[in-house]
Prior knowledge:
The structure is a single chain. By secondary structure, this protein is of the alpha/beta class. 54% of the residues lie in helices and 13% in strands. It has eight helices and five strands. Strands 2-3-1-4-5 form a five-stranded parallel sheet, sandwiched between helices. Helix 4 (100-110) runs antiparallel to helix 5. The protein starts with 6 loop residues before the first strand and ends in a 6-residue tail after the last helix. Bound molecules: thymidine-5'-phosphate. Thymidine-5'-phosphate binds at residues 14, 40-42, 56, 72, 98, 102-103, 106-107, 158.
Amino acid sequence: MNISGKFITFEGGEGSGKSTQVLQLARWLEEQEIEVVTTREPGGAPSAEIVRSLLVEGAVDRWQPISEILLHNAARAEHIAHTVAPAIAEGKWVISDRYADSTMAYQGYAHGFDREIIRRIHEAATGGLMPDLTLILNVSVESGLARAGKRSGDEDRYERMGPEFHERVRAGFLEIARRDPKRCCIIDAEAELETVSRSVIDAASTHLKGALP
Length: 213
Ligand code: TMP
């Protein structure tokens, strides 16, 4: 019997409401008697959280583009090894707030780094692990940055990259979804919280129907 769990990721720009939706989906899956682990990137394991602070704090231009990609992938390799892979092997479902599509959208589409090199680094860092389902929360840059601005402490390095950068991030995520429609589902996250949660649960139950009890 195959008891391996599922890997679900949430993606989207700043202030798209991912962390709330991660918790809502986890609660719904637990009601279906599925064991769930919620996690995030960059971070999600003690060693990866150390790398996180290097990425989300400080001057916008503190890293060379390649260094930034390698740091995200170093954190990701730790996250997969210590948190994601062990949980999936035990049959748990893992929901991560961000994963590899964020590197493609932020460092690839928005920063303009070679996307084929990003793909190869991802392959080396994770063995090419991709989620079973990716929910992309789509909000306008204006409302996303306004929401994000309200909650941030020191972790605002990417928020400070400016609206044009974030327009390219948003367009990047939409392009990622267009290229991989089987895995990715775009959710209108401009709506009320309950409406967004309903869309997320509908998408998860449709895409992962065969795996639900
Ligand atoms: P968040 O935890 O508030 O979503 O912040 C993490 C930030 O890191 C967010 O602005 C997006 C950015 N990021 C990248 O640029 N590349 C990546 O690969 C990941 C995982 C996050």
